[in-house]
């Protein structure tokens, strides 16, 4: 029998994110919690500056929360090292950015293959 954690793809619990500029602290996320189930499509909507991108960056492991926890397939990834998060993003998470973020001196196939090559796979595999 599957547990609830076998069906949750990503979960944020009491996520907080603060940004500091000099002596000024801006609290962007203030205790946000959500679960996204495997196979589920979710839209995050809100006004400009409400923290949508910050939330997605934290859930995708591109940024760390100031407080709270992020679980990916039941594993707490909230405070993994940069190296470990890079590996998880390469192997487990897909991103579609508003701007392509491709490496300009690589062609399309090379850009697609780059994560596999970084994991030690060969082009013909």
Helices, by number, come to 3
| Percentage of β-strand residues | 25-35%
Q: Segments where pLDDT lies below 50 for 5+ residues?
A: none
Strand order in the sheet with the most strands:
2-1-3-4
Helix content: 10-25%
- Biggest sheet features: 4 strands, antiparallel
The CATH homology group name = P-loop containing nucleotide triphosphate hydrolases
Which class do the helix and strand fractions yield? alpha+beta
Description:
The protein has 125 residues and is an alpha+beta fold. The chain has a single domain, classed as Rossmann fold (3-Layer(aba) Sandwich). It is built from three helices and four strands; from the N terminus they run E-E-H-E-E-H-H. The chain has a four-stranded antiparallel beta sheet, covered by helices on one side. Strand 1 (8-21) and strand 2 (24-37) form a beta hairpin. The model has no long low-confidence stretch (mean pLDDT 88).
């Amino acid at each position: 029998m599957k547990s609830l954690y076998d069906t949750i793809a990503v979960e944020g619990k009491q996520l907080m994110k603060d940004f500091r500029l000099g002596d000024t602290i801006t609290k962007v996320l203030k205790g946000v919690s959500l679960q996204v189930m495997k196979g589920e499509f979710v839209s995050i909507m809100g006004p400009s500056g409400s923290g949508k991108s910050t939330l997605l960056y934290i859930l995708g492991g591109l940024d760390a929360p100031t407080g709270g926890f992020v679980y990916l397939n039941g594993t707490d990834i909230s405070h993994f090292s940069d190296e470990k998060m890079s590996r998880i993003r390469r192997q487990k998470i897909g991103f579609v950015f508003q701007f392509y973020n491709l490496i300009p001196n690589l062609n399309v196939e090379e850009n697609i293959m780059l994560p596999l090559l970084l994991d030690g796979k060969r082009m013909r595999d």
